[in-house]
Structures
1.
Amino acid sequence: MEEYINLFEKIIEKTIPQVDYIDVRAGMSDNTSILMKDGKVDEINTGMSLGARIRVLKNGAWGFAYTTDLSKLNEITDTAIQLSNSLTGDVELSESEIIKDKVEVDVKIPFKDVSIEEKKEIIKEASDAASIDKVNSTTAGYSDGEINELFMNSEGSEIQTKTSKVRMALNASATDGEIIQFGHDSLGGVKGFEVIADVDIEEFGRKIGEKAVRLLDAEPAPSGQFTTIADPLLTGVLIHEALGHAVEGDLILQNDSILKDRLGEKIASDIVNIFDDASKRDGFGYYPYDVEGVKTKPNQLVKDGQLISLLNSRETASKLGMKSSGNARSIIADKPIVRMSNTFLQPGDNSFDELIEDIPDGIYLKGSRGGQVDTAKGIFQFNAAEGYLIKNGEISTPVRDVSLSGNILETLKNIDAIGNDFKLNMGFCGKGGQTAPVGDGGPHTRILNALVGGMG
């Protein structure tokens, strides 16, 4: 993107006398996606894209314009200025460091060095491995992308980034003629194809099929309040959905969060420490700078149970009297909004055996099938992928179709023991019509009096 630096400098120099602030962001991406159903390719998409957006601020109002034709930069700049001139608002930006940097993610196997045929073969290997007895259908998805971005603003920042991201996900459904159950897993990261090549694909696929079949023989889950152990994946979903969204600055300002005006308050038990860290390179939500050019770093949200920080863009940070946490995110064509990155519960001191040894009657929940949260009311419900009853300190009967629900603050305060293991999961988070890659996770976590729902 270096060839565009002089062009952007001229755009900024020409525009700054007419506005209070301007930033320019452009990106060039090379992407491939493959969808396979029941071992047969259903869809392949591959190609390159180029786009740029201009954002100007004047009289407290944004003007925003986007193009896929960089010869029209002057034209979209005029459009952005006209839009901001037609509006008035209360937008101000928090102070931000002026940065000149160039960052490139380390890649061992570039995606372009792996043919479409090789990628198809690996996906089919995983799909075939999952297709064991009683598995009636599989769906596998693969996507990779390399993106070069350039960000410049009227304050003097100039940031170039080059990142690579890859993900493969597999779903298997199994049936015994009466019920249907599912297995799911994914792998990938902010790396090159090596993150796929280094995995035992046959084992990856087989375990997904085995999970779906295993659930056919599981008993319907009981309902009621139980001491519950959440595995790292479900812990991550809990932290992301129940806490992460509630600390997003825009939701706070919209009076759509149970955590509004609670900075400094105790919202969880003393052992709870929660972070959002976009700088974590092994997380699927990694990025070195956000889309406003703010450098990312570990942001502790909860310390020893106390809410000490929020997630902010420069705009929301200014309104809340804070500094941006580097959580402004979007694809180039969309306006930046406040988003999580890698959000997780810090590990504790307990082994898994210590977590369950003194539970006479509890439940162990693994994985996630999604759920929902109402940040304003502070309530949530998540569906676990599978579960096991805990009897007298030991894992016993497998159960299926089980959910975990409750009040956000009560649940965080009922966390009474935290495992010493850790896993960061990867996925995508939707908000405001936009989707962003994220990581979430933590250790095994014990929650007292958790409300579990099932059919038993």
2.
Amino acid sequence: MDLLPPPLEGITVVAVEQAVAAPFATRQLADLGARVIKVERIDGGDFARGYDTAARGLASHFVWCNRGKESVALDLKDPRGLDVVRRLVAEADVFVQNLAQGAAARLGLDAATLCAAHPRLVAVDISGYGATGPYADKRAYDMLVQCEAGLVSVTGTPEQPVKAGIPAADIAAAMYAFSGVLAALVRRGTTGRGGPVEVSMLDALAEWMGHPLHHAMHGGTAPARTGLAHAVIAPYDAYATADGGRVLLSVQNDREWRRLAEQVVGRPELGTDPAYATNAARVANRERTDAYVAEALGALGTEEALARLESAGLACARLRDVHEVAEHPQLAARERWREVGTPVGPLRALLPPITLPGGEEARMGDVPALGEHTEALLRAVGMTDDEVAALRRDGVVA
């Protein structure tokens, strides 16, 4: 049986994008088969290209968020550069931008303006705090939005709040932009009309804060910061093993506690002792509960500790660092790694999480060099040799 084509094959996306939120959203579209044309500045391009040089000389953020795209470098302050974008948009299905608040509107590239001119276009505005309200014009970097959305307040230890170790606000906005595009394309399929899509980083991350928000709004108190422990379950934490590893253990009910006490801790009497027999009692006596578990696991190597916990039917995990995740046996066994082309040669990358059985594998295209596709795209919008040469001579394209 023939494989189904990628679901977004035939869809063209134009993106005036930078950093993470918009590029990660459009990378999802590219992985699903869309053609994504990335519009970059002529003086260095997307500034995420310069975040670091960790990926064999390339920026790790950029490699992660920009595979499968075509790069055109334009000066949008020059009317001729802006005209190229407008020509590209006229033939596109989707437009995405995450410029600073107000910048897209000044260029006539905001969603409302573009959708009025192109009724079938799906146009996405990604912002930090939304287009209205007292925060509309505030700078919105990931860490700042993590703070404003309260994520930092519930992450960390009792003594110290910390930000998430990944750009959670950017990723949240990216994934809502991605799903917003898909929803708008479905609607276009039934109505023939596209329309604007608005996503703000604050709105996205505030939604992800749903549990602590509801806990605080309706219960009166915010969940406590507990590091790797759980605020209302015990034992539920990371415990050191004899060989320097750390094992996470989660006991979800009193039956599991009795198995842990008997088969791992070696103290079956703790399973029925009123001081430990119920979760409420264990939470009240968390320090002593954790001490019993820590002593038992601390006498075992990591592999043996995990084996005993698994044998007892208890939820457990190894605390892995990033290098260990890159070699994770489950990812290897499920063949989740591929190679993508880049200006410095092939680099490992994970298949996207969306798998469509019966269809072609995700299109993990190359990471483009700055302006790699400028010439081809200028000619595709009808420019002559003389016009292209003039744009290059005047520094309008790169």
3.
Amino acid sequence: MRTDSSPGTLPAREHLPAAPAGTPVLDVVIPVYNEEKDLQPCVRRLHEHLDRTFPYAFRITIADNASTDTTPQVAGRLAAEIPEVTTFRLEQKGRGRALRAVWSASDAPVLAYMDVDLSTDLNALLPLVAPLISGHSDLAIGSRLARSSRVVRGPKREFISRAYNLILRGSLQARFSDAQCGFKAIRRDVAQVLLPLVEDTGWFFDTEMLVLAERAGLRIHEVPVDWVDDPDSTVHIVKTATDDLKGVWRVGRALATGSLPLDRLARPFGDDPRDRDIEEVPTGLARQLVGFCVVGALSTLFYLLLYSGFRVFTGSQVANALALLASAVANTAANRRLTFGVRGRGGAVRHQAQGLVVFGIGLALTSGSLAALNAATSEPAHSTELAVLIAANLAATVLRFLLFRAWVFPDRHEDDAPVPAPSHPTQFRAGEAADGTWPDVTLQLLPVRPHDTDSRDFR
């Protein structure tokens, strides 16, 4: 079991201790823009529910995004009447900007938000935050698309929601079921590390946060919810959908190029059984074997197709060399990313060069097998050639895996030096903490500068 606290790790997840008197365990943020009509009944209903059912101290924070009606006055009166209610005023619109600002300044260990219309049944709030309080999960989301969810809404919103999540699954390989439900929570220690990586300041904010969290290996808990559509919603569906698709493209490009330092977030919280030292079981061997076998099977099919195609125009030795060269380059790239988890462009040329050395060994094995076959039979059948090549490739595959694991992509986790701190302070804007600095954490992150303006309408 891992018990060290070396740089690059954070303290293990633990059940949150009982908080001192006056310190809230949960901070529920309600972002609003021109909600003078709905704000008061929403806050009073939420406060009554928490006061009656929630076993910990709590706070309700109204995040006013530059409202131009009487919303600030309504929020001020609520804060004056109810001790657990506070207000936070921003001069720029954007749901993501509001959440970043309030979550960054909050002292509560569990942070949540919900839409002002309270479309989600409040009975799901305790199940939402319980896994975060217990230390089981890092983030939690309400899902309207789970099998046991009960949802009432029109076909247009249903289609848009499901289509958007299909896009996320197809383009960003997202595995969570509902990105847009306005009912989410996150542990504060996770937010301190994750929020600086999230660039969007509008409606795409929480989708981007979830994608990055999932790619970083954080645990996301999903809660089926009862949800009733708000017919008076002021969200501009077409514009929001367009901006979300732009966000999907931006995040997908960043993930593909490796420009996001997600490796610094990989499993940073808690004891992961995959990190335990178990005698006679090398770290990550099972996962790497499975990934290598999948890549190897696809590479072998690719190689045989190429060999059959080249064999029409040239001799067996030349066809074998060309097919093996092309498949070796693709195999090295796939194993680099999928089997051994190496992201970004750093070291890619060196890895390909080492992969070509491994290719040379495989070429020697397969070419030698073909030479032996041709020496034994002057005109071997094509099926016999393929059988010999498959056997030779199996032997080369075993050797390739051993060389990849020990030489091309060795596990340098224990040998890596701590990441040096930046030479200049990281600049934060709307997400800056109350005192202008983040609380001390051991991970070093690259600065992310969110957009200064957000043209999306915010409710």
4.
Amino acid sequence: MSELSELSELSEPSELSEPSELSDRARKLDAGDELAGKRAEFVLDEVVYLDGNSLGALPAVVPGRVEDVVRRQWGELRIRSWEESGWWTAPERIGDRIAPLVGAAPGQVVVGDSTSVNVFKALVGAVRMAGDGRDELLVDATTFPTDGYIAESAARMTGCTLRPVAPADVPDALGDRTAAVLLNHVDYRTGRLHDLPGLTAAVHGAGAIAVWDLCHSAGALPVGLDEHGVDLAVGCTYKYLNGGPGSPAYLYVRREVQDRFESPLPGWNSHAEPFGMRTGYEPAPGALRGRVGTPDILSMLALEAALEVWDGVSVEAVRAKSLALTDFFLECVAAYVPEGRVACVTPVAHEERGSQIALRCDDAGDVMKRLIERGVVGDFRAPDVLRFGFTPLYVGFADVERAARVLAETLA
């Protein structure tokens, strides 16, 4: 199926539902939603918030927890909190909290730094693991810009040639000189879900290292890092994980390669004996060698509190609701929006779709401004894409129907 699918092709006009029917169905779907109760765990208003793929909503538990960190842990305990409040072990403890959401066993995820810094660590570490004779880096040609920038710098620093390649073309581009491949699990513009199991197997078949960026998939769908043998992975925590603006990212280092992973940023926090203050560097065991400097405790502990919304939630249930929400949105858009006014650039097939819908529209920037003014918040990606993210923990089917209806009214 073509990535560019006209919405009018999704269903024949005679099959389109009436607005009252869609509204009734939305109410019934919300009534039967097993995740509906999670919405109360977030700070929300009457706005339809469909930008959680850029910044997740605030979990209600976070403000009180941050106040405790500031007033008691920092204000009263002060330096004692590194031990008594668990500050020192926060990167690996919170990493273990994230691990089940990306299909990883404990001891393989460490939290800290930004996604960009972790991409750099992962790529340079991957080249070093790949060994002599491998001097080529492949990078997703459709990647988020910063991944491309970091990949270019990592290639220069390691003496590698950088080759941008479309994910679907990676198997044919691999060779005996390929050191590592950096891919995005979900395309940030279109919402296309790439084949992580198949592409990882292809990379390994060529003897190279697989590095995945999970920013637009973690917390929205099953990832299966351990199951599929991914070597290294990175991701942010402020999208579907709702960790807050600028919350720290994470680095996954598969257990089988941890003793070979050599970080290009050997900070004192990743030393085997950080308080030994030795002049020579000896890496800590396991994923801890992915740490660098002093953890950013305030934002890290806000993230830890935010992750409590995942208690009792399975990623499989989240994925099922995500697909149902995006299916329903496409149906509502097809029913409400004037024919030919927008086109969907997100794959319709479930196995190729993340948790967002991207619609191409000639005047997308102005349209999104008007949508936001009317209480439907998505975002705009140049030159002509309206992007709507669906976070199943707090977005409901009535939200979806309202968003499509307001979009149609805005475009009429």
